Amino acid sequence: MEQIEDIHPDTIKDKTYNEEIQLFETFANQNGGTVLKKSFVQSPNFKSGSTGWNIDKNGNAEFNDGTFRGTLSIGGSVITIDNTKSIQDKLDEINTAGGGTLYLKAGTYTLASDITMYANVALIGVSPNATILDFNSTAGNLTIAGTHRYSTGTLTSITNGVTVVGSGTSWSANVVAGRDSMFVNGQWMIIATVTDDTHITLAEGYDGPTVSGDSYRISSTMENVRLSGFNVKNSTVDGIDIDDARYIVVDNVLAQDNNIGLTGSYVAEFAINGFTPVSNTSHGISITNGGRFNWNSTNAVSNGGSGIVLNSIRSGGFSQGVGNSNTADGFNLTSCTDISLVTFDASSNGGQGIELVSGNTSISVIDSGVRNNTSDGLKLTATSDKCLILGGSFENNGGYGINIAASTCDDNIVNTPQYASNSSGTLNDSGTGTVIIPTSVDTNFFAGVGEATTVKTYWNFSIPILVSTNVPSGDFWTLLNYDTSINGSMGAARLSPSSDANCSVLTTKAIFMNFGGTPRDIYFDTTKKIIVEFMVEMVATGVEQAGFGLVQSNAPFFDYDSAAVSAACFTIDGSGNLYGHTSAGAGGAAHTETSISGVTLTDANTFRIEFDPGVDVKFYVNGTLGATNTTNLPTTAHEILFGWGAEGDTSNGGSMMVTAPYFAIEK
């Protein structure tokens, strides 16, 4: 055999040697023992991340695969079993050894009782499709639970984040420093010392809201548990139950056909990276009291209750998951604080996509899709304050896109969401102090609903509200009837008739001019598409007739089915019914009224008219198409004015507030 010692090391890389020669060069006999001469030992074909094997002098190793017989300890006990072995026996063995990992081979593990996890233990299967934990319709579940629980009395104060004073507590006899932790407002903190029955010092600082008379919980928490790569199914209770625990990781786990997929209480520092509760009898996930959650790709689908139910959770981020096709809500939150739902999909649920039930503060819903839910897309039911709805799409819901349903919902922000075809309308705001920021670039407005911007281009402009009582002819607007007061700003005006006489406001001139050929005011015989959008809030309905929109003159505002003038406008009859009205201005029967239902006219509603000459007139309310008229379209060379008005009535029957109209006119 060639002696490797006679070859200069620089030439080794240019020669081919068998493994035996390479090992001679690598090892040496020194004082009766074998030592590593080089910085590593490796197979001749080693290529990091691809082939061969390598062990360096620090003990770091890289292999492609391996078979180990018996127990292999690598920073803890590691055991691999198949479905002929007892999961609980091996978990007990690992716990006795001080922690480690139990690997489950592919197969179905049929179980008849609880599987109890321990601290510092991981349970890892091959994948949710390959490794099945089947409780076989029994009341067993996979349990992660702390011990030594105590919660008698209340908290008087926490000073400097660590000094805790209790009232009605007996901590000396029931709490052990170092072993136990205290849970307050979503946070577990290790207890450093127990001074007496009413005084404790924490080893970790409390960072939550001020406490006074608050409840608490003390437990020896279950910590550092990981679940991965399996499907837990067919439990008549909860597939996974987590209580009095922190530092929990769940990744790539399926919970199927249980009563609840995952339930928990008093859980903190809880991370998910791939968890799918599906087809459970009740909720997909239900957790009460917890905090500091970081959940990614949590997908609650087709559960018999809500997809995800959170109660009294403080601080959590939820991203890139779904709460879809559940019998109740997709997401249901009560008494939660500082929760963010980012790029979530909450669609096709039997209730709301997302419901903030009550007691919530600082909930953010960001860039999420909320579509096709039976009720509202997002509902703030009661006392949900300082919430942010930023962007996102709220479409085809059976109620409102967004419904701020109660005056107890304070200081919320709705910032540039997109709406389409919600049955009750885009946004209902019954809250207090709501800030609404409209969509900054509304492609529907500039291009027409559903129309690509490349098809047509538009002139875009608004006519400001510059009015006062007895507006003189020649300004922007003309007030027609002087038994009427009108109070306006740059953006809106309120019309208030003071006698039983017709009253209206119209633009003094036509809304635009034609270009090309001889310039003139734009008429109803135009071939260019016209879009106008504005808000109207009626003070009362069911008293007098009213109307608003594009008209030749104000006649349709006093007679909802008038055929006297050219018009494409909304009208309201004396019973408070809303219509999309078109008239060719020829008198007689040349008019069409299409009823629009489901609109509360005393709310602030967004109205939109899309006049496509010779084709149709579409009437939208709060982003939802309410009517399409294709007959008796205006075609006569009459000036197009914009305005609003009503039959007069001293009991507010004709009173209304209207915002400045925004126009898009095809170039």
Characterise the protein shown here:
There is one protein chain. The radius of gyration is 35 Å and the shape is elongated. The protein folds into four domains: 4-62, no CATH class; 147-220, Elongation Factor Tu (Ef-tu), domain 3 (Beta Barrel); 282-437, Single-stranded right-handed beta-helix, Pectin lyase-like (Pectate Lyase C-like, 3 Solenoid); 460-666, Sandwich (Jelly Rolls). It has a 25-stranded mixed sheet that branches. Strands 41, 43, 44, 48, 53, 54, 55, 57 and 58 form a nine-stranded antiparallel sheet that branches. It contains five helices and 58 strands. It has 667 residues and is mainly beta.
- Count of DSSP strands: 58
Largest sheet: 25 strands, mixed
Which stretches are low in confidence, meaning pLDDT under 50 for 5 or more residues running? 1-25, 440-455, 467-474
| Separate helix tally | 5
CATH class of the largest domain: Mainly Beta
Question: Which shape, going by the Cα principal axes?
Answer: elongated
